[in-house]
Write a structure and sequence with these properties.
With 122 residues, the chain is mainly alpha-helical. It is 43% helix and 0% strand. It is built from 2 helices and no strands. Helix 1 packs antiparallel against helix 2. It is elongated.
């Protein structure tokens, strides 16, 4: 349903762009001037394009609100590649933790040594 409405929304957007570009502006627009002997006069075509712009604009706004509401209520994730499953092995230990045998008892960790020598605990 969501995908269908998204496709309809894209079609409405494309039609809205096309109708706006067909309208005559001060520069002449994309269409050539209509002849009075045609199916619609220039005045009728302008009224039709103005109405269709307003209708398509309203549909575009309504569809945007509807799609936003539907997207907010969807429970499926778009990208699940970063989701980590909760594993029981990664859980915190429940019992008391024994102190490390190599750690100093004064609470200060030894500074790292670059030459590979082991620092002496004092």
């Amino acid at each position: 349903m969501f995908t269908f409405l998204l496709i309809v929304h894209a079609i409405i957007a494309a039609l809205l762009v096309a109708v706006i570009l067909m309208q005559r502006s001060e520069g002449g627009g994309l269409t050539t001037g209509g002849s009075p002997s045609g199916l619609m006069s220039a005045r009728g075509a302008a009224d039709f394009l103005t109405r269709s712009t307003a209708i398509l604009g309203g549909l575009f706004i309504a569809m945007s609100i509807l799609l936003a509401a539907l997207a907010a209520t969807r429970h499926d994730a778009i990208d699940t590649t970063l989701a980590r499953p909760a594993s029981p092995a990664a859980a915190a230990p429940t019992g008391p933790v024994a102190p490390d045998a190599g750690a100093p008892t004064n609470g200060v960790a030894p500074a790292p040594v670059e030459n590979g020598a082991v620092p002496i605990a004092r």
